[in-house]
Design goal:
By secondary structure, the chain is mainly alpha-helical. About 65% of the residues lie in helices and about 5% in strands. It is built from nine helices and two strands. The protein starts with a helix and ends with a helix.
């Protein structure tokens, strides 16, 4: 897929289609652990026709590719001021891999706040009844795909950063908010660490 998109970028596409195809090609190259080719795809598809959202996405891809090629400071600098959820995920992951714990915790804290705000908005919207509303929902199994595995690892990182911090940790139990005591916090750290070691260490 990456080769096809790159050929289209070089021979057939122009304007926003060229930018979009190059962006997809770069994302595929990163998934294949080929950051050099990702940077090349971004370079080949440069065009002023890209939308602001696409420009921001390309900057995040470039940052990840630079980071993965060893240009860690350049990669971080590109997204230092990115406060989007995607940007915060990326920064927290970068700092985590560099073992820059304070910076990772700060990015994860901002991300948690953004996630809480999103959930609060979703909860408020869910209180409005609709004709298609069902009184019960059944949890669906989640496929073990690279994307879902990545999301799980990011969530575990966020949990561990919060649990290892000094601020109180509140969890939802039975529809009620409960602050974890020291014993519960240690148990949760052990559980999340075991999950992280099982699913994320090789990723």
């Amino acid at each position: 897929a990456g080769d096809l998109l790159e050929r289209q970028v070089k021979t057939r596409l122009s304007g926003v289609d060229k930018v979009a195809a190059g962006t997809r090609a770069a994302a595929i190259r990163l998934l294949d652990d080929k950051p050099d080719l990702a940077l090349a795809a971004l370079k080949a598809s440069e065009d002023p026709a890209g939308s602001p959202d696409l420009v921001a996405e390309r900057k995040r891809l470039q940052a990840r590719a630079l980071f993965d090629t060893g240009e860690t400071l350049q990669g971080i600098a590109l997204v230092r001021d990115d406060t989007s959820r995607e940007g915060l995920w990326l920064k927290s992951d970068m700092f985590w891999k560099l073992k820059e714990w304070p910076s990772a915790a700060e990015a994860l804290g901002q991300l948690i706040e953004a996630e809480q705000a999103k959930r609060a908005a979703a909860t408020a919207a869910a209180t409005v009844p609709t004709a298609e509303s069902s009184p019960e929902t059944t949890a669906q199994p989640v496929a073990d795909t690279p994307e879902n595995r990545s999301n799980l690892c990011k969530s575990l990182q966020a949990n561990l950063a919060a649990l290892n911090g000094s601020a109180p940790v509140v969890m939802q139990k039975g529809g009620k908010s409960t602050a974890l005591d020291d014993s519960q916090r240690k148990q949760q750290i052990a559980a999340d660490t075991a999950q992280y070691n099982q699913y994320c260490q090789a990723s």
